[in-house]
Amino acid sequence: MKRILLPVDGSPGCQQALTIAEDIAKKFDSTIIVFYVFDLYRIPNELEYAGYIEKMYDTESKKEFLEKTVKYFQERGVKAESKLIKGDPPSDIIDEADKGEYDLVIMCSRGMSPGKRFLLGSVTSKVVHHVKTPILVVK
Fold this sequence. Notes:
alpha/beta
């Protein structure tokens, strides 16, 4: 197991996924690719959420977050790299996993209400159902 894909979204609830990725990477001397998809398709109402839009499209903060995450792994003796792309998170995670020759994908599952999960689905759920690479979902 040489390459691990770790899609991240910056949510504080996903710290457990980082810990598990670290443990697995150390055990198998793997490289972790910390992967962030800048969601171009989530566009809220501009008038109502003008401040939110500015924050949402702040790529510099996303790059900084990725750098901190890579540094987190490197300080613990784990090889890590980052990759940031713009697109649709579920589709791009699946594409990256399939084309990047990864041995494992590790994702966190954030809790959603049953109604929201039914109507929208989650990124993790979509990836789980369509990715060909083995996947570990951390709750």
